[in-house]
Amino acid sequence: MVSSSLCRLTLIVVLLQFKICISFAAEQPPQSTSFSEYDQKLEVWSKRWDNDNTNWHRNMVNPILKSLGHLVGVPYFEDTESSCLSGDESQQQLRVFVPLCGKSVDLAYFATHPNVSHALGVDGVSKPLEAFAKEHEHLKIQRTSDDLSNSHRWLGNNIELRQTDFFDISTREIEEKFDVIYDRAAIVAIDPLLRQSYLDTIGHFIKPKTGKLLLTVVERTADLLAGPPFSFSDREVRDLYESQSWVASVTGPLEGEPDPGDDPAKWISKTYLIQAK
Sign of the CA dihedral 258, 262, 267, 269? Predict the structure, then answer.
């Protein structure tokens, strides 16, 4: 009798536990796809684009790129119809990567530069990419179908745009390495806790030995913990980049034309040249 009672009691306990587990599972929200999760993280940026609250955007080629582009093989030129470069300057065919690009005019500049064979811009928000395609009709950018569920793609003359999770770009999406990576305050737009993850991605796509990264950051002079943009001091830049396995050297801050967005009462821009190992 005792044994039979214990068996019945054990069975009741097991059934109750099973019922609790089923009820708990039923109450959990369904798991979203990785792209949906990333889209939620970008809600703030999406709203800023929707509301035209984009004070970081410039309707001109960044002066820093004009004055320092030659350091990465992209010297300044004005004639977009034909090359105005000569000699060794015009012999390169570089692949350029612009992370978190928005609708930067610098992308169009790269795409029409005689030294650039391919420019890739990646952003997590679709609106600036769609706007870029419309604003630069000469590049003949068209949206294309893509088998990759978490990536939206546009192709044009010497240019490619992708809306995707920058921190989870797969080698299926982007197979080749890049000669030049142009970071115009992209790393200071993200949470400082994500900087190492950001650099892991950068390191994966920069061409070993010959690849170069032109980096512009801001260092705040007031409200040091505010952001974005988040402050990035010279010491922090050197400590972080020099610790990367793919970095051979860090040069800077470099002297160039000032960024028109600088406000010395709030922050100043600093530019560095990072050489790949």
Answer: negative
- Compute the residue count for the chain: 277
| Local structure of residue 180 (DSSP, 8 states) | E
pLDDT at residue 84, as a whole number: 46
Q: Are 153 and 144 a contacting pair, CB within 8 Å?
A: yes
| HSE (side-chain half, CA atoms, 13 Å) at 246 | 18
Q: Give the span between the Cα atoms of 26 and 242, in whole angstroms.
A: 49
Q: What pLDDT shows up at residue 240?
A: 98
CA–centroid distance for 108 within its chain: 17
For the chain, list residues with pLDDT below 50: 2, 6-7, 9-37, 81-84, 86-87
Q: What confidence score (pLDDT) does residue 9 get?
A: 47
Query: Can you give the pLDDT at residue 16?
Result: 47
Question: What are the two backbone dihedrals, phi and then psi, of residue 154, each rounded to the nearest 5 degrees?
Answer: -130, 140
**C-alpha 194 chain-centroid distance:** 12
Query: What is the rounded CA–CA span in Å between residue 64 and residue 70?
Result: 11
Closest by Cα among 141, 269, 175 to 217: 269
Contacts of 205 (CB under 8 A, 6+ apart): 97, 169, 174, 177, 178, 181
Q: What is the DSSP string of 83-104?
A: ----GGGGS--EEEEEET-TT-
CA distance 169 to 97: 13
**Where does the chain show beta strands of DSSP type E?**
94-99, 116-123, 142-144, 151-156, 159-164, 180-184, 212-220, 247-251, 267-276
Q: Which helix (H) or strand (E) holds 55?
A: none
